Amino acid sequence: GQSTSPRLRVRDTTGQTWQPTGRTIDWQGWRYVQLPLTTSSGHWGGAADHVIHYPLVWDSVFLLDNPSRHKSEGTIYIAAPMLLY
Question: What is the dihedral of CA 42, 48, 53, 58, to 10 degrees?
Fold first, then answer.
């Protein structure tokens, strides 16, 4: 419930890093979270051409970003992460 953002990172064959973002965590308790990788996902480096070049390398399984930069604390549990490719 701290308004943080779940993210992950993947890298394509050109070295372009893609960072899809899930729904803002503004709740408490268990929730199913999806982080869809689309060409509108944040990305940088590599070809910088807004095209996802497969195959991908899963660089970070989970990132928790704090866009507000306000102090926050709590615990995040991740159960059974899945990649649908």
Answer: -50
Rounded to whole angstroms, the Cα distance separating 16 from 30 reads 32
**Separation CA 73–CA 53 (nearest Å):** 37
From residue 6, how far is each of 2, 59, 73, 78 by CA, in Å?
11, 15, 15, 11
- For 23-57, the pLDDT digits (tens) are 999 889 999 999 999 999 999 999 999 999 999 99
Prediction pTM value: 0.84
Q: What is the mean pLDDT of the chain?
A: 91
